Amino acid sequence: MANTDRVRVRGLSIFRPIIYGNTATLLTPEERENCPPEHTHKWTVAVRGAASAENSDIVGGADNLGYFIKRVAFKLHDTYPNPTRNVDKPPFEVAETGWGEFEIQIRIHFIQESGEKAIILYHHLKLHPWARAGEPEIPLPDDAIKAGPVHSWQYDEIVFNDPYQHFLGILTSHPPKLLPKAKTKPIPFHIANPASLEGSKGGVPEFTALMEKDETARLEEAKKAIIAEQEKTRATLIAREKELERLQKLVNS
């Protein structure tokens, strides 16, 4: 690499949107015949571009990230053979079967031209949908098969500050696919199993440019609900303190 390529472009930041997470489905009786007897699910954990390809049943993955990512190392549970899985080319994913949920360490290594150190992300493998009020934590097998895949994905942005001139050229020559401005698939991402929603036929969720706004609104509603619950509890405590004070006066009189 020429010396001029090792010059950093000061004061400039450039980012690439990614998602990381997993999709999981219940094993069919036929699939279980070829797996350890205790295994119940098949799952795929991955690092992908945030945008989804048109008419795809895969969350994200429209962009090939190999132009700036050299390797992704997935650290699985120690009970798996060869628990550290190094993936040196796209798609950066690992497919396995199992029965339990656990934390996966994801180490992303960048190409040599970047001059950047590896970064580490963490993802909790999700096999079962988040239960709504009154629903069992783990659905019955027939219900799980009918509901379809469980999706658990996190959006993130890898930011490169003061990038090297040559690396900047690599990044700018591979612009990421833009996220859609609005939802074309009305499936929320905070529900692991969209088919469990009333009136939903399931499907594949996707990230959009308005998701940050939607997430902010959702968090604001949750915050209001918590504040309302705190005020309700506070009012109850005040009423009980007054009642206790009244009873103490009666006892002392």
Low-confidence stretches: 190-201
CATH superfamily of the largest domain: YEATS domain
Number of helices: 4
State the end-to-end CA separation.
92 Å
Return the CATH topology of the largest domain.
Answer: Immunoglobulin-like
How much of the sequence is in beta strands? 25-35%
The largest pleated sheet is described as:
4 strands, antiparallel
Mean pLDDT: 84
- The helix-strand sequence is EHEEEEEEHEHH
> Structural class of the secondary structure composition?
alpha+beta
Helix fraction by DSSP (H/I, runs of at least 4) = 10-25%
CATH class of the largest domain: Mainly Beta
- Taking all Cα atoms into account, the compactness measure Rg is 24 Å
Which CATH-level-2 architecture of the largest domain? Answer: Sandwich
Overall shape: it is extended
Q: Based on DSSP secondary structure assignment, what is the total number of beta strands?
A: 8
Give me the side-by-side strand order of the main sheet. Answer: 5-2-1-8
Domain unit count: 2
Pfam families: YEATS (PF03366)
Subunit structure: Component of the SWR1 chromatin-remodeling complex and of the NuA4 histone acetyltransferase complex.
Keywords: Activator, Chromatin regulator, Coiled coil, Cytoplasm, DNA damage, DNA repair, Nucleus, Transcription, Transcription regulation
InterPro entries: YEAST_sf, YEATS, YEATS_dom
